[in-house]
Structures are given as C-alpha cells and as structure tokens.
Write a structure and sequence with these properties.
By secondary structure, this protein is an alpha+beta fold. The protein has helices at residues 7-32, 38-44, 65-78, 80-99, 102-114, 230-266, 278-306, 312-337, 347-356, 365-380, and strands spanning 119-123, 139-143, 146-157, 162-170, 180-185, 192-197, 208-219, 223-224, 268-269, 272-273. It folds into three domains: 7-117, Acyl-CoA dehydrogenase/oxidase, N-terminal domain (Butyryl-Coa Dehydrogenase, subunit A, domain 1), CATH 1.10.540.10; 122-226, Butyryl-CoA Dehydrogenase, subunit A, domain 2, CATH 2.40.110.10; 231-380, Butyryl-CoA Dehydrogenase, subunit A, domain 3 (Up-down Bundle). The protein contains ten helices and ten strands. Helix 1 (7-32) runs parallel beside helix 3 and helix 6 (230-266) packs parallel to helix 8. The longest helix is centred in the middle third of the chain and has 37 residues, at 230-266. It binds acetoacetyl-coenzyme A (CAA).
C-alpha cells in the first residue's frame, strides 16, 4: 500500500482541512443545536468536496477514494454532522457515476456536486429491514413508461433535504436479493412524503427521517442500472460508504484526542499537570495508537478500491475498528475532561454523542463482524 499522496490528493486534503477549519468549525455549534448545515454546504459546493471522485466537468474533483476518505476525516474533525451529510452525498454521486447513463450523469451530478441540492440521500433501511437489507418490502411495480413505488423507508440521512434519493425497491419479490432495483426518486414526485424526524442523541445537525411512497410514479429514465441489480448497487455503495464512516470516526476520534490533550494540560495536581501522570499518559497513548491503526485500515480499504479490487472485507474491518476506536477516544475525552463534560454541548460530550451512531449506520458493528467472518470462511473452504 502506497502511503504517500499524489500532488492532486495532497491538494484535496489541504482543501478539506482548510474548509473544515474555516467553514465547518464556525457552524458546528449551531449544528449541535439541531441546525441543518445548509450554510456550510453552500460554501462546500464551489470547492468540489461534495463530489470528490466525480469528474470536474460535473463539478467534482476527479479524486481518488484515498482523497475522499482524507476529506471526510478532515471535515469530521470540525463538524461530524456536516461530514456525514457530505459523505452520503458523495456516496450517492459515486453510484450515479458508476451505474448511471450519460443522461443521468448530466441531469443529477452537477446539482449534487455544486450544492444546488443540499444533499443526496440513500434509502435502503425499512421498519422491518435494517441489518437484513435484502428483506426490504418497498415495491416497484412495472407500469407503462416506468414504475409505481409503494412502501416506507426509515432512518434516512438527509431524506427531507435531498434533491435526489437512491431508493432500493423490489421489482421481483420472489427473487430475493436479485429482485431489487434502484431508483432515482425526486422529492417533487407526487406520492412522495417525508415522515418522522428522528430525535437522535448525537449528530443533531444531520437530518434523519422516515420516507413514504404512495403510488409514486418513477419513469424508466430514473431507474439506476438494470432491473435486479439494486442489491449489488447498495452493497457496492456501502463498501465505499463504510470507508467514509471509518474516516468520519477517525476524524471525530482525533478531535477527541485534541480535547484530551487540552484537558491534561489544563488540569494541575500541585505544580504538575495531569499530562505528566502515567495513568493519563497511558490513556493518551492508547487513544492515539488505536486511531492510527484505524486510519491505516481505512487507507488500505480505500487504496484497494482505487486499484479496482474487491474490498468488502477490508471495508468492514476498517469500519468496525475505526468506529470503535473513535468511540474509545470520545469516552476517554469525557473521562479526562471530568466535570467539564457534564455540559451536553461541551466538546467531549458532543463528540461522545456524535460518534456513537457511527457503530450503527452503514451496517452495525455486528454486521461488519458477520461480513468479515463470512469472507474468512469463504477463503478457507
Ligand atoms: N458487492 C457486490 N455484491 C455483493 C456484495 C458486495 N459487497 N455483498 C453481497 N453482494 C451480492 C452477493 O454476491 C449476492 O449475489 P448473488 O445472489 O448473485 O450470489 C447477493 O449480493 C446477496 O448477498 P448475500 O447473500 O451476502 O446477502 P445477505 O442477504 O446475506 O446480506 C449483508 C448481506 C452483508 C448482511 C447485508 O444485508 C448488509 O450489508 N446489511 C447491512 C445493511 C446496511 O449496512 N444498512 C445501512 C443503511 S445505509 C446508511 O446507514 C446510510 C446512512 O444513513 C449514513
């Protein structure tokens, strides 16, 4: 694995780091009070960071997967709510690029990448189909000129603010995972509605909603890829998405490490700071080591994807390890901040609330372990 970055990747990393500190940081407190980060997205649009891997002709940066995870990590250090919103938009844009036709590229990518649309959204989960994604029940029935969609989706990031929503629905219910297709649903389509807004413990600036489809007519031109490949589209998306969530967790963990560094410097025992205490030093060392190891796993998975190699197992390893490392870092930040962390909007408390969901969305830690174990079993049989 090549650890050094190309000049273009380096430029993207610098751009993301600058945008994180100059733009996202100033709106992060508002996001933690529930404000959707529209102001940050307006400033992100012209940078190309909403479509890191998308060709420049559509408003993206034509970057690599490695550049994309660097970008999400840098944004997450400053505002995790914005980072996840941007990560999902990037994932949606990637899938349109990968599975869409030229007409769909021209119709959807420029608005996604420029920020004309606040976000892209990915609608797989349902009330009765979370971890077991293939058991989804949303139905897309073939009608003249298109499909009629009926069903419900749950826990959908940006579902209420997106200009386009990738919806996985059954076109052939008897065919299991092979009977699923993907549709590009636009919120203006009659019969589409947004339901409950989830009141989450963290990532309060990121919007999470349920969606309903009641006889929504989706034209043939809005089917993404062939009929029956929807589950593959979802899994390929999640292979990349899981690298992004791993990167987001590393970014949050690094922000927690920064909180820890400040806390141990600020606290004094007599004339010595807490940072000279061996117990505190061991904690700092463990946090930093786990985050570095996590980052290497994320980079490995992203590099394999750049090389066009299968990386499902590596993405699952990166996601499970990085999100647990990020959670560990935030727990240590709360422990070492002590009373200061009792304020729910303090940096340590916010990171602990924000990082928790990274172990749930885009496949829980349990699902990642299942994916890893299945791949290992397949490689020995
Ligand atoms: N790439 C390509 N194809 C894949 C694939 C991958 N990574 N994984 C599976 N497939 C294919 C298989 O090859 C198989 O194809 P064939 O039928 O042709 O053999 C087919 O898909 C079915 O595969 P499985 O038998 O492995 O499927 P399964 O039903 O056992 O499920 C699972 C596998 C990994 C558990 C899957 O259900 C899963 O990932 N569940 C978690 C769902 C999830 O992550 N949800 C997140 C929601 S999105 C989100 O959170 C975004 C957000 O808001 C931030």
């Amino acid at each position: 694995m090549e650890l050094s970055l190309s000049k273009q990747e380096q430029r993207i990393v610098e751009l993301a780091e600058r945008t994180g500190t100059d733009v996202l940081a100033k709106h992060a407190a508002a996001a933690d009070h529930g404000e959707f980060p529209a102001r940050s997205i307006a400033e992100l649009g012209p940078t190309g960071l909403l479509g890191v891997k998308i060709p420049t002709e559509f408003g993206g940066l034509a970057g690599s997967n490695v550049a994309a995870v660097h970008a999400i990590r840098a944004l997450a250090r400053n505002c995790p709510s914005t980072a996840v919103t941007v990560a999902v938009t990037n994932m949606v844009a990637d899938m349109i690029l990968r599975f869409g036709n030229a007409e769909q590229h021209a119709r959807f990518l420029p608005k996604l990448c420029s920020g004309t649309w606040l976000a892209g959204s990915f609608a797989l989960s349902e009330p009765a189909a979370g971890s077991d994604a293939a058991s989804l029940r949303t139905r897309a029935e073939k009608v003249d000129g298109g499909y009629r969609l009926n069903g419900e989706k749950l826990w959908i990031t940006s579902g209420d603010v997106a200009g386009v929503i990738l919806v996985m629905a059954k076109t052939d219910p008897a065919a299991g995972a092979r009977g699923i297709s993907t549709f590009l649903v636009e919120p203006s389509m009659p019969g589409f509605s947004v339901g409950r807004h989830e009141e989450k413990m963290g990532l309060l600036g990121s919007s999470t909603v349920s969606l309903a489809f009641s006889d929504v007519f989706v034209p043939d031109a809005n089917r993404l890829g062939a009929e029956g490949i929807g589950f593959e589209v979802a899994m390929v998306a999640l292979d990349g998405g899981r690298c992004g969530i791993g990167a987001q967790a590393v970014g949050m963990g690094e922000a927690a490490l920064n909180v820890i560094a400040q806390a141990v410097e600020a606290r004094k025992k007599g004339d010595r700071t807490l940072g000279t205490d061996q117990g505190a030093q061991f904690r700092v060392a463990d946090v930093a080591t786990r985050l570095d190891a996590a980052w290497l796993l994320v980079l490995r998975a992203a590099s394999l994807r750049d090389a066009g190699k299968k990386m499902t197992k590596e993405a699952a390893m990166a996601k499970v390890f990085a999100t647990e490392a990020g959670n560990f870092a935030a727990q240590q930040a709360v422990a070492l901040s002590q009373g200061a962390a009792l304020d729910r909007h303090s940096p340590a408390a916010r990171l602990l609330r924000d990082v928790r969901v990274s172990r749930i969305y885009e496949g829980t830690s349990e699902i990642q372990r299942l994916v890893i174990a299945r791949h290992l079993a397949a490689s020995v049989s």
